[in-house]
Structures are given as C-alpha cells and as structure tokens.
Amino acid sequence: MTARTLYDKIWDDHVVHQAEDGTCLLYIDRHLVHEVTSPQAFEGLRMTGRKVRAPSKTIAVPDHNVPTTLDRANAATMTEDSRIQVAALDQNAKDFGINYYPVSDVRQGIVHIVGPEQGWTLPGMTVVCGDSHTATHGAFGSLAHGIGTSEVEHVLATQTLIQRKGKNMKVEITGSLRPGVTAKDITMAVIGETGTAGGTGYVIEYCGQAIRELSMEGRMTVCNMAIEGGARAGLIAPDEKTYAYCMGRPHAPKGAAWEAAVAYWKTLYTDEGAHFDKVVTIKGEDIAPLVTWGTSPEDVLPITAVVPNPADFSGGKVEAVQRALDYMGLKPGQKLNEIAIDTVFIGSCTNGRIEDLRAAAAILKGKKKKDGIRAMVVPGSGLVRAQAEEEGLAQIFIDAGFEWRLAGCSMCLAMNPDQLAPGERCAATSNRNFEGRQGRGGRTHLLSPAMAAAAAITGHLTDVRELMSEGVSG
Amino acid sequence: MEKFTKLTGIAAPMPLVNIDTDMIIPKQFLKTIKRSGLGVNLFDEMRYNLDGTEIADFVLNQPAYRKAEIIIAGDNFGCGSSREHAPWALLDFGIRCVISTSFADIFFNNCFKNGILPIVLPQEQIDILMADARKGANARQTVDLEAQTVTTSDGQVFPFTVDGHRKHCLMNGLDDIGLTLEKVSAIDSFEAKSAALHPWA
Ligand code: SF4
Questions:
Q1: A126 reaches B (C-beta below 8 A)
Q2: Minimal CB count within 10 Å: which of A15, A32, A121, A385?
C-alpha cells in the first residue's frame, strides 16, 4: 500500500461517494452549530420540509452574541437582534431535537471549547461547524474545518459535505520552545513565515518535537489559527496525551468501545515516506514571544522588534501596510515594546482554556494591572470558569484588577456588548486583528496569554520574559 | 439559486490585498436571521463615515461604480471567517463575479453556493483587468461561464478554469442538497458500515 499522510487516512475513511471528476461526498461525524451562521440553514430545512439527518451527531451552543457579564440572565443585557438570534437557536435545537447547551447551562461556552471538553471531538473524526475556527479540533487528529451556511444546511440534511481533497502541507517545529514562548507564538510564527494565504488549498499537519511537547490545550491553540494561515484545517497526530485528554469525557466511548477506539486511533499517523506537497520547518528555539503590529495576522514580529516601514514590502502589500499603520496609529521604527495599550482581553477559542488562564495568572500573581487599563478575562466555557475558580486563578485575576467574566466569544469579535471604542488599543489573546474586528476603529495586537498579562501590568506591550520569576515557565 | 451564464457589466477596481470578510460585511450585520438585505452594508466601514454619510472616495460610492456587478480585487480576497453573509452581501448589492489572483478557500466555496462566480487569473491579467476597470462605467467587461472567458472592454480575452461540477450547478442554478439526497442509499450504507466499524463515532 502507498504511504499515506494522516489527512489521507482520515479522508479515505470518510468518503461516501466519489464522482468521476474527483468531487467527493464526505461523511461528517460531528456537526457543531452556533447561533450566528445557522438560522438561515434551519430556515432552509423548514422551507423544504427536510429534517436533521443525525440529530445525535449535531451539537449546538450559543456563544457569539451572549453577554459575558454576571447579569446576563437579564434579557435587557442583549440587543434585540442578538436576542432574536439566540432565541432562534433555542427554538431550532428544540424543534430539530439536537444536543444543546443553552446559555443557562454551566457547560455553555465557545463552541470550539465545548466540543472537546464534552468529548464530542475525538481522533479520526470529521468535524465541521459554520465557523472558520473549527480548525481547533484538528488538535485531536480529527479533520475539522469551517463551512458556510449553505453547507451547514447541507450537513444538517445529509450528514455529508461535498468536498474536493486538499493538498498536504507539513509544518514541523523542531526542538523545544524557550521559556516564555508558548503555543500561540508557534502558530503566529508559522503565519508570519507563510503569510495569510500560504496555507490556502492545504491541510496542514503540525509535527515535530515542540508540537509533541505541547499539552492538548496548546495543540488546540496551534490548530485554531491554521485558518489565519489560509489552511482549511490543521492536524496533529493523536498520541498518549490525546487519549488521556479524551478518556472519561461525557461523550467519549467507555469500556470495550474505548479499547476499540484507541486501537483505531493508534493507526492515525503519517506513514514513513508519505508525500507532502509543501513543507515548512521552523526551529522551536528560534521562536520569540510575538505580537502583531498591523491588521492582518501575518503582520507579526518578535516583541523586541520595531514597527516596519511600508517601503520594506512589495506589491499590493505596500499599500496594505501603509493602510494598516494609519489604522493602528503607528509609525515605522517605533519600538513594539513601547506601544501603550488601553485594554487587555484574555479569552477566545484560541486562548480561553484552563492552561491559558494558568499562564496568565502565573504572571499576574501578586501583581496589579496598571491604573487606567481595562482588563478582562473571559473563560472559554462555564466549566473552564468553574475550574479556574477552584484553582484560585479567578482570585488572582480579581486581585490584579481584572474583570472575571462568564463564558462566550466576547471581545474576540465584539458581537456582544464587549467592544473597543474607536482608537482604543487592545492586547488580545484572540486570533484576528482585522480592522474593526473588536469594535469599529479598535486596534488589536494579538499575543499569548502570558504576554497579555505582562502588558496589563506595565500598560504597554511588554516582553514577558522580563517579568518572569525563576521557575515560571510560559 | 439564480443561474449564472453570461454577464456583461461594470467592474469595480479594488486593488487592496487581503480584503477580509470583516471588511466585506462587519459583524454587527451578522445578527440577521435572513439572507437578504445585506447589500446596503457591504464594505460598511470602508463605505460610510461614523455618522452614516458616504465616504466619497470609496470605489462603490463613486458614480461610475454604483452599479458594479464585477469586482477586480487584490490577492487573497475573502480571507477570514466562514460567514456566508459575505457572499450574501455582495449578491444583494448586485455583485455576481469577483476576479482575483487568489481567494480564501471557504469564501471561494461559499460564492458558488450563492450564484457568484469567483475567477482566479494570473497577476499580469489582473493588472490589465484592473486598468480596464479604472476606466469607469463605460468600460464594461464580459464574463462568459459557458466559454470560460473574461473579456475586457477593448476585447482582450482571458480564459479561466472552473471546476466542472460547480460550473454545472451555477449554469443551471442547482441546489446541492437535492443532488446529494439522490445518493441517500450510499449514505445509508456508509452509516451502517461505520456503525459496525467505529461504533463510538
Ligand atoms: S472566540 Fe472568536 S474566533 Fe472563536 S468562535 Fe468565537 S468569535 Fe470565532
């Protein structure tokens, strides 16, 4: 048999039908649904009298619109249109009989955090969601990607997706990370290297020692931003850490089924000599704590660098960089670690898991945010929040002057009331620094949770390594 | 879905690279539960001032391009989120075709589901189309899906490639779900096999 990549194997195991031109009908094991990209799909089902083919494989949770303040049970905390979207999901979940975690449920959270947490996401599965950050689930060695609303309707009705196979790309991170450098820095380093279109048409498999050394949380952070590099999906081969994470979760198999599942999962790796269409290698030791300076995730530099000059770029990027610097209110040559910030946002499906909160709390412990800085922590799920309270992390944040919020997407995309004002500058652990992403005119600098914590303390973008006490690792 | 066969229309030049989905339709307009009505908010933050007045410079606000049906764009058009609101907004405004050197994957896919034709051409040809589009409203370009060609206002013809299945669906306005449901027995047998082989899935 020819040597196959991990992507090839998962793909082959899910082809329902292949047309002569190579277009495939791919079976979908898990369909995650949130309130923003699904109403038109359910409306389509109603109009055509179709049902959800596999309600037991369909999981819905409201996350984008929900307020994260403690009083969110009060309907007045939401705008009318947000309320309508969440109410539509409540109704659709009920009418179509799918698995549902409503706002009032402690398990509610960002869809990409809830899926793995509840054991819905397992190795070797195909996972889709009407959301580009579905790539997150690739950390389990599942083929996971974002789809549009028409495709959401297609999956609801048929449990399949029409797909053409992508190309294979290998991203290898060799060696180990240095202290203060995290999964977030890996994934931003890759985008800095390949550009935001570098992965277009590919499925990326991340491998190498630095990836193996990451926890499952870190691996999810890496795969989460595969989409920012243009790739539809990112993958990491499952290993003992993956099995340990999955074991005992509510929807993970038990007993003999567990044994059978693990036996199958152990076949999920790239064969020796399998072909990759593109290979990128980065040395783990070379990665520094990174920040973005512009309005594209590829606008990334080590915190020790300076704001670049548009003239250093070529083609359409010259205009884009000039536009980005104008928007960001920055000048070429300015030191990145001197850029003063107004706001710190720790959260999102990139960095809203327990380990992210631990990393930020380790920096903040016994310290206070700088006066005048607005700082908030938004746990990725109700269960992450509960665990952080149990571990004493919540108290560290509160003592440091952070707001301690309920779970949701929050200021990652500012569809709920958590928004930046025009010109407000934010150090954010989320994944997109597009113009207006966190609020019209808002300025976003992407960075890791530890770096965000450091910025909160000093009031400007800061090299976290300067604040790390002995023994604290990033 | 509306059929796409042949289109002759005004092309708006948008040379910016990495035009993302947040630019195409900012998130405050994602709160709709309908597909229509998003055209007025297409490129909202580039198109309007904070007080709602139009930004005169923005290409689609210029008299020549208010009725554009084609966009000639810089690299990597449509990057960012999976929101189908982006093609819905383009369509609602009247855009039926976007031509660029490259597109983000999900956006590219979403276009076909909504009767919009995304066309990839090499940089030199984009440069020519961009210059042609800059001539304004009288410089109409023609996109012929059947023949797979784009023709500039002065008659230069550029062939493009398109996936056969997608071309067929677009030319006939076909709905994917109906086509897939014709294969329901294949889905049934896949599920039966998978239930035996991978019962946990
Ligand atoms: S946290 Fe941000 S990126 Fe993640 S699903 Fe929510 S809005 Fe999307």
A1: no
A2: A15
Contact call for residues A308 and A292 (beta carbons, < 8 A): no
The residues pairing with A99 across neighbouring beta strands, listed in sequence order, are A59
- CA contacts within 13 A on the Cβ side of B9: 20
Which tokens is A101 given?
């975690």
Cα–Cα distance measured from residue A291 to residue A310, given in angstroms and rounded to the nearest whole number: 18
Kindly state whether A260 is in contact with chain B, defined as any CB-CB distance less than 8 angstroms: yes
Q: How is residue A43 written in tokens? A: 């409306």
Q: Which residue lies with its CA nearest to atom 6 of ligand 1?
A: A409
Q: Do B80 and A154 touch (CB under 8 A)?
A: no
Asked if ipTM goes beyond 0.85, one says yes
Q: Determine the average pLDDT of the residues in A448-466.
A: 98
- The CA–CA distances, whole Å, from A419 to A67, A85, A220, A345 equal 11, 19, 25, 10
Backbone torsions φ then ψ of B12, nearest 5 degrees: -95, 130
Distance (Å, whole) CA A150 – CA A165: 19
pLDDT tens sequence across A74-93: 989 999 999 999 999 999 99
Chain A, 219-258: which have a CB under 8 Å from a chain B CB? 230, 232, 252-253, 257-258
Question: Among A303, A289, A308, A301, which Cα is nearest to A193's?
Answer: A301
Interface test with A, best of B180, B182, B184, B185 (most A CBs within 10 A): B180
Is the per-residue pLDDT at A459 higher than 90? yes
Question: Who contacts A303 (Cβ-Cβ below 8 Å, separation ≥6)?
Answer: A288, A289, A290, A291, A336, A337, A447, A451, A461, A462, A463, A464
Measured distance CA(A433)–CA(A293) in Å, rounded: 9
| Residue B168 dihedral angles phi and psi, to the nearest 5° | -60, -50
Tokens of B97: 């075709």
Chain-centre distance of CA B178, in angstroms? 22
Instruction: List the single best residue of B1, B16, B18, B91 to mutate versus A (max A Cβ within 10 A).
Output: B18
Interchain CB contact of A438 with B (< 8 Å): no
Find all residues with CB under 8 Å of A465, minimum gap 6, and list them: A179, A180, A289
CB of A133 within 6 A of ligand 1: the answer is yes
**Residue A317 with chain B: CB contacts under 8 Å:** 17
Q: What are the structure tokens assigned to A189, written together?
A: 């380093």
Whether residues A132 and B165 touch (CB distance < 8 A) is answered with: no
Mean pLDDT confidence for A390-415: 97
Query: What element of type H or E holds B184?
Result: helix B184-197
Say yes or no for a CB contact (<8 Å) between B84 and A27.
no
Q: What phi and psi, each to the nearest 5 degrees, are found at residue A404?
A: -110, 105
How far, rounded to the nearest angstrom, does the alpha carbon of residue A106 sit from its chain's CA centroid?
21
Question: What is the spatial distance between Cα A51 and Cα A76, in angstroms, rounded to a whole number?
Answer: 33
Round to whole Å and give the CA distance between B120 and A134: 26
Contact B4, B142 (CB under 8 A): no
Give yes or no for a contact between A223 and A207, defined as CB atoms under 8 angstroms apart: no
User: Confidence class of residue A470 from pLDDT cuts 50, 70 and 90?
Assistant: very low
Indicate if the pLDDT at residue A98 is higher than 50: yes
Closest-CA residue to A360 (of A447, A442, A299, A424)? A447
> Is the pLDDT reported for residue A197 higher than 70?
yes
Query: Among residues of chain A, what percentage have pLDDT more than 70?
Result: 99
Sheet holding A15-18, edge to edge: A15-18, A24-27, A160-163
Distance (Å, whole) CA A62 – CA A45: 20
Residue-level pLDDT at A471: 44
Q: Which residues in chain B are closer than 8 Å to A200, comparing Cβ atoms?
A: 76, 102-105
**Is the Cβ atom of A64 under 6 angstroms away from ligand 1?**
yes
